[in-house]
Write a structure and sequence with these properties.
The protein has 2 domains: about 80 residues, Type Iii Antifreeze Protein Isoform Hplc 12, CATH 3.90.1210.10; about 50 residues, SH3 type barrels, CATH 2.30.30. The protein is elongated. It has 1 helix and 9 strands, in the order αβββββββββ. A 5-stranded mixed beta barrel has the order 5-6-7-8-9. The chain has a two-stranded antiparallel sheet with strand order 1-2. Strands 3-4 form a two-stranded antiparallel sheet. By secondary structure, the chain is mostly beta strands. The chain starts with a helix and ends with a strand.
């Protein structure tokens, strides 16, 4: 019983010494976060970012306000494809490869599934964003 009390106190002491990362200015959704935008605040809030390196180069998904905690879901990889951007649609299966032009109906980072419109057929489809900005059709 005494061991539990001591380890519990150690855990509380460790939490009291933790820091979180906050912004020093308002960051709008879609802005990429740089090191100059971040400061360390001495407070513990579970589920928030504690290391600046986890945020640098990420894109804000929501507005981030100065001094407020940043959660991991508030940021993500920068978008490669923007809404209304012309994109290349690629379909591959069993040795068949079809390439056509489309228009992105949403924004997306590498690996995101977005809706696109095939400009030839006007059909709305879904596809995964590749690192080069092409869309791999399902």
């Amino acid at each position: 019983m005494r061991w539990l009390t001591v380890s519990g106190l150690m855990l509380i002491a460790m939490q009291a010494l933790a820091d979180i990362v906050v912004t020093n200015q308002t960051i709008r959704p879609g802005d990429v976060i740089s090191a100059e935008d971040l400061v360390i605040k001495s407070v513990t809030i579970p589920g928030t970012v504690e290391v600046p390196e986890d945020l640098i180069g990420q894109e804000a998904r929501i507005a981030l306000y100065p001094g407020r905690p940043i959660r991991f879901g508030d940021v993500g990889p920068p978008a490669i494809v923007d809404r209304n951007q012309l994109v290349t649609l690629v379909y591959r299966q069993n040795g068949l490869r079809i390439v056509t032009e489309g228009r992105a109906l949403g924004r997306g980072a590498e690996g995101d599934v977005i809706r696109v419109m095939n400009l030839t057929s006007r059909a709305t489809l879904s596809g995964r964003v590749n690192a080069d900005g092409t869309i791999k059709m399902h």
